[in-house]
Design brief:
Strand order of the largest sheet: 1-2-3-4
Strand content: 25-35%
Number of helices: 1
Order of helices and strands: HEEEE
Largest sheet: 4 strands, antiparallel
Number of strands: 4
Distance between the termini: 128 Å
Number of domains: 1
Structural class: alpha+beta
Helix content: 25-40%
Shape: rod-shaped
Radius of gyration: 34 Å
């Protein structure tokens, strides 16, 4: 008896030359979903890392800008300290002590100062010291305070 071979290959005929079976459509879809999830997770991690790097840069620049303003204020005569109260330089508009613009890398940081007269009492010594409280804040483009520095400057002896 003769056997007629069907037009469709049998399950055994659908194997590769090496003997392994080909991927089914379902397996290919599952592999594609896993690949898409992996790529998405990597992209999110990179974006998060970039955001953390920007925040670290802002914190570093805020510290430098606040320290520079504090140094400028502390270098002023005691009688001139109150003139810095309310001093505010918006992000991207900061100037150095000699009125030069800050480098463009500081565009995301602003700073402001407050000077308030205050008396500090030292109970152990029974002494009251009159002076100025100086506070310098550095903030970002959203107005969020990144850093605050404060110093007390006693009134000079006369």
């Amino acid at each position: 008896m003769f056997r007629i071979k069907p037009d469709r290959p049998s399950r055994d005929d659908r194997t590769r030359a090496g003997g392994s079976r080909a991927f089914t459509l379902l397996e290919a879809l599952i592999a594609s979903v896993i690949m898409a999830l992996t790529v998405t997770a990597v992209a999110m991690a990179l974006g998060s890392g970039r955001q953390h790097a920007m925040e670290a840069r802002d914190q570093l620049q805020a510290g430098l800008a606040a320290e520079a303003l504090m140094a400028e204020i502390l270098a002023a005569e005691y009688a001139d300290l109150p003139s810095y109260d309310g001093h505010d330089e918006a992000p991207g508009a900061m100037l150095t002590f000699d009125d030069q613009p800050y480098p463009e890398s500081f565009y995301r940081v602003g700073r402001r100062a407050a000077v308030v007269e205050r008396t500090v009492e030292i109970p152990d010594l029974g002494v009251k010291v009159l002076g100025q409280d100086i506070a310098v804040e550095a903030y970002d483009v959203d107005g969020r305070v990144i850093l605050t520095l404060s110093r007390f400057v006693p009134e000079p002896a006369q």
